[in-house]
Amino acid sequence: MIDDIRLDASAPLQNQLYQQLAQRILQRRYLPGSRLPSSRQLAQDLGVSRNTVSAVYDQLKAEGFLQGRAGRGVFVHDDIRSDILRPGTRPAPGAAADKSALPPLPQRTDLHISRTEDASLPFQPGLPDLDAFPIRSWNRTVHHQESRRLLRGYDSTQGYLPLRQAVAQYLRSSRGVRCEAHQVIITNGAQQALSLIADVLLEPGDTVLCENPGYRGARHALASRGNQVRPVPLRKQVLDVDALDGLGSAKLLFCTPTHQYPMGGILDISQRMALLKWAQRNQTWIVEDDYDSEFHFYNKPFAAIQGLFADTPVLYVGSFSKSLLPAMRVGYLVVPEPLVAHLVQSKRINGGESPLLIQAALAEFIETGQFTRHLRRMRQLYRDKWLLFQSRVVRELGAWVTPIAESAGMHLVLEGPFDDIALSRWLATQGFGSTPLSVHFIGDGARTGLVMGFASASEQQIEQCVALLKQWFASHPGER
Ligand SMILES: Cc1ncc(COP(=O)(O)O)c(C=O)c1O
């Protein structure tokens, strides 16, 4: 009966024996009521200690696989019903679950799982300079906060009040946002802010307008309940405000007015006013994603459209992912007062509070001026990298690509007629990140290029990456 049991050195003998016996019972190779060898016999046959076999038999008895009958030996339990023994209905302990035995999975064709282990490669768009983060002062701040008893329990789902106050103060003074702390909701990154907006504002059948090309994270969140996403074209690298009237009604419009993602344009003041007027006329919410406006290199960035006048229909979204670290997962939403309770309730259901220690440390980091100092240094650093990268692209790659550049942000688009998906994949094999421009488009008519996040690359990596790109273009002569 046990001739086919094989034990080797790959795992503890007891585990192997347990699994093999349990599997054979589940597969009906050992039928209910059949007798197993005595522990002494089996130990001898397998060349293991009797204790090992006794321990496995005891475990299998305790779990109902086996039963002992006084004076007669050990048997496969009579009560193991045949209907639970069909192959696949109950995976053997420790074995991988049989997929066919799972309840039906949702039919979804729109799954884009694009984050990989390579997500922190230099030039990955959206990634700040991880080495320039002031880790010592951050650690000191965390250490300062971590022994506070207050931070060990639950706090507010809306966000730790001192952090909401610090964020409100920062947004009022540096972004012209009209807000008080009670309108601020701390979120787990901008991504959660977008999901909460979709959860609270969108009903079946509502249409969403998104810039085309645009930020995929927003598109996916806003379409996740089956709502239709209608593309809004760009003109001169910014949302074409004049095109809005021809697009029909919509519940909300997602946009990046202060640094269009990914094309980098900046909506000027008259376009901002026209956008707000259009939204008011059409009763449409504007989701303003202000993801990297800290990094405008020569001029102060335009004030957020949220604050252009009182009571704008704007949900303002921001994040510390670019200004500090993506791994912090702290973002924020500023919304008109009547929406606060709805969004907080949605956050309560969808994950609850954000980690309290991080929020408290961040509040202290901002209040003590360390955040502003860090931003000042990063603005300088990213400007230098931007100048270097841009000049190398023009000099070395000018025959193949056109850099699309405003003096802002953390990424540059190198536009050109080449297979951007193939090039981006190849670049990853060389240790450099990028995203293909074409994946940011909705529908047909995608343009091609590479979105390159220069902030995370060192000077040396900038030189290396440009040399690699030159080599690729030179060996793909059709790509021009
Ligand atoms: C346009 C845009 N908005 C927002 C974010 C920030 O997302 P999160 O705060 O979830 O990291 C990113 C990050 O890549 C982005 O590119």
What does this structure look like?
By secondary structure, the chain is an alpha/beta fold. It has three domains: 13-101, Winged helix-like DNA-binding domain superfamily/Winged helix DNA-binding domain (Arc Repressor Mutant, subunit A), CATH 1.10.10.10; 134-372, Aspartate Aminotransferase, domain 2; 373-474, Aspartate Aminotransferase, domain 1 (Alpha-Beta Complex), CATH 3.90.1150.10. Helix content is 37%, strand content 13%. The chain has 13 helices and 15 strands. The protein has an eight-stranded mixed sheet with strand order 4-11-10-9-8-5-6-7, sandwiched between helices. A four-stranded antiparallel sheet has the order 12-13-15-14, with helices on one face. Strands 1-3-2 form a three-stranded antiparallel sheet. Helix 7 links the parallel strand 5 (207-212) and strand 6 (228-235). Helix 6 (189-201) crosses helix 9 (337-349). The longest helix is centred in the last third of the chain and has 28 residues, at 370-397. The radius of gyration is 30 Å and the shape is elongated. The protein starts with 12 loop residues before the first helix and ends in a 6-residue tail after the last helix. 39% of the residues are buried. Mean pLDDT is 92; it is low at 87-96. The structure holds pyridoxal-5'-phosphate.
